[in-house]
Every structure is written in C-alpha cells, then in structure tokens.
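Sharing in case it's useful to others searching the archive later.

Someone asked me privately for the predicted structure of Macrophage migration inhibitory factor homolog, so I'm posting the question and my answer publicly. Question first, with the sequence:
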Amino acid sequence: MPCLNISTNVNLDGVDTSAFLSEASSQVAKIIKKPESYVMIVLKGSVPISFGGTEQPAAYGELVSIGGLSSDVNKKLSSAIATILESKLLVPKSRFFLKFFDVKASYLNF
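And my answer, the predicted structure tokens:
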C-alpha cells in the first residue's frame, strides 16, 4: 500500500482538499503502477514549517511503498506531487521536499 503523507504550512481553510487528494492519489497509483484502491494520501495543513529561513508556503512529504520505487519513479513522483502542490496550494516547486521509503512487506503488520 503506497502512502503519501504531506505536511504544509499553508492554511487549508477554503482549499478544495478533495481535488488535491484525488489528483495525488491518481498520480501516485499511475506512476508506481499500483491499484489506486491501495493508495493512501494524508494532507496536513497549517503545520509550522520554515524552509530556507522563511515561513513562505512550503511542504514536506514522505512516500512509503512496498516496492514500486526506483530512482526514475521517484523523480516522476517528485515532479508530479510538486506540480499538484503548486497548482492546488500555491507551494512553489522549489519549496517542497519529498522523502521516499521502499519497505519490505515483512516490516508491516497485516
């Protein structure tokens, strides 16, 4: 199950979070090549974040997946998520960091 967890200092009041979640879910599934029914997206807003010494709009994300990740896939995911953050939350692509975790199924509790 891929899980994308995004934290941003942007206030989400008045933001169409459903559009963000839907687009992020679709892109993660498509790029990792996993069924969207397995994808989880978590979006947290109004998180105190300083990036580059300023509190201008920024975001931090972690993506955990059981397989499906590689250098090429990670680049595509970073680009796609950065584009969604910029279009939906006005977070510049240069103020976003995404960390990847490719885990083995044996590390998870099912």
